[in-house]
Amino acid sequence: MVLELHGSSLSVCTKRVAMVLNELNVPFKFFPVDLKNREQKSSQHLEKQPFGKIPFIVDDGFVLYESRAICRYIATKYAEQGPPLIPKDLQAWAKFEQAASVELCNFDPYAVDIVVENYFMPLYGKETNTAVLKVAIEKLNASLEAYDRILSKQKYLGGDEFTLADLFHIPISTLLPGAGFHTLQENPNVKRQAAFHDQRLNHTRAAD
């Protein structure tokens, strides 16, 4: 059976999973969830995703939610179909998990706040919470200074090989310029990484 991806084309988390599927050439069928009509809160959806969020996958009857867990599952099950996205060497794997933790704790929360407050709020005619936006910008700028130090010593966040940790950044980081955040271009090593992210995103679009 073809793997099912249930989510939204507007969802960063859904895009994260789709990128991994495309990286590993995994055939899948996309099932759009109508967020506007709160389909994610329906009883049918809650049976698969008890928190009423997206995405989730169904792989030959196996149901899994939480985008990063899904990505790890796909990268492990279909490892032979594309580039190794999770290292097998113990120390390389530890560095990958370190980098994945950095993305989850020091990048994603602030990037999401910036995109929500300075892109989606105005898009839907709502008022930006300037206090939240100010803190998020300060925090993300501080994180990117650390990123630049890391990337001055290695090619990618988890070492010298591209991994899921790098891919996890891509969907939200490509929305930051549209939210008025351009610091990705101000740190030289981060700028190099951002350019690579754009290439990977274009690869995914070509594979769609």
Q: Which sheet architecture does the biggest sheet show?
A: 4 strands, mixed
Counted by DSSP, the helix tally is 8
How many domain modules?
Answer: 2
Order of helices and strands: EHEHEEHHHHHH
Task: Give the fraction of residues assigned to helices.
Answer: 40-55%
Task: Enter the CATH topology name of the largest domain.
Answer: Glutathione S-transferase Yfyf (Class Pi), Chain A, domain 2
Terminal CA distance reads: 19 Å
Number of strands: 4
**Beta-strand fraction estimate:** 5-15%
Radius of gyration: 17 Å
Would you tell me the structural class of the helices and strands? alpha+beta
Q: Quickly name the level 1 CATH class of the largest domain.
A: Mainly Alpha
Low-confidence segments:
none
Walk me through this protein's architecture:
The structure is a single chain. This protein has helices at 12-23, 43-48, 67-77, 90-106, 108-123, 130-151, 164-173, 188-207, and strands at residues 3-7, 28-32, 56-59, 62-65. It is α+β, with helices and mostly antiparallel strands and 208 residues long. It folds into 2 domains: 3-81, Glutaredoxin (3-Layer(aba) Sandwich); 90-207, Glutathione S-transferase Yfyf (Class Pi), Chain A, domain 2, CATH 1.20.1050. A 4-stranded mixed beta sheet has the order 2-1-3-4, covered by helices on one side. Strand 1 (3-7), helix 1 (12-23) and strand 2 (28-32) form a beta-alpha-beta unit. Helix 1 runs parallel beside helix 3, helix 1 packs across helix 7 (164-173) and helix 4 (90-106) packs parallel to helix 7 (164-173). The longest helix has 22 residues, at 130-151. The mean pLDDT is 91.
